[in-house]
Amino acid sequence: MKITFLGHATLEIKINEFSLVVDPFISGNPFASEVDIENLKPDFILITHAHQDHILDVEKLAKENDSIIISNFEIVNHFQNKGLKGHPMNHGGKWNFDFGELKYVNAIHTSTFPDGANGGQPGGFIISANNKSIYIAGDTALTFDMKIIPLKYNLDLAVLPIGDNFTMGYEDAILASDFIKCDKILGYHFDTFGLIEIDQSKAVEEFKKVNKELIIIKPNEYITI
Ligand code: NI
Ligand code: MN
User: Whole domain around residue 202: which residue ranges?
Assistant: First the structure.
């Protein structure tokens, strides 16, 4: 899997011939100005929850690329009502897609659409393909629910929010890393707004102290697992 960071909580994941875009928020993010949204051709768009900073570019991308939107039932319903394609899921459920297995897991957060409409309950995803598994936590607090994940999945990478205030911060992300039994963490959801600014080097240092790896990359940079 090739995981490209596209700013804030937006990722592109390439698995075999498939492109998955997670939580597209590009056109409204000044820190993602070098990301060319026209280069993205997602076969699937994964949405963790309905907040603006996770769905802003869903309609445009889905319309132009005939993408299948995967999220909770309420969010998929919302986009299907606009004529877009979707696959609804709910917490604890998994499905085998062409790219691999996807499980929708718990997150502790909220999920109202920008206009106040019901966006169901927020979640995260576990993607398993080509004998690798990655956990994308979405916006979440540290939660004991994370301890369920390693009972079934041997994670190769976890993408965790580290910006604090609206989600867990990097100190709690270190504990989350223990809970999920994965020491390789890609940090996201930080520095985009004033309320989630962090000291990046301190965060990386704190992970190092406990023999864990916090990866922080710039928009358009990628890692492969
Ligand atoms: Ni949110
Ligand atoms: Mn958010």
Answer: 2-224
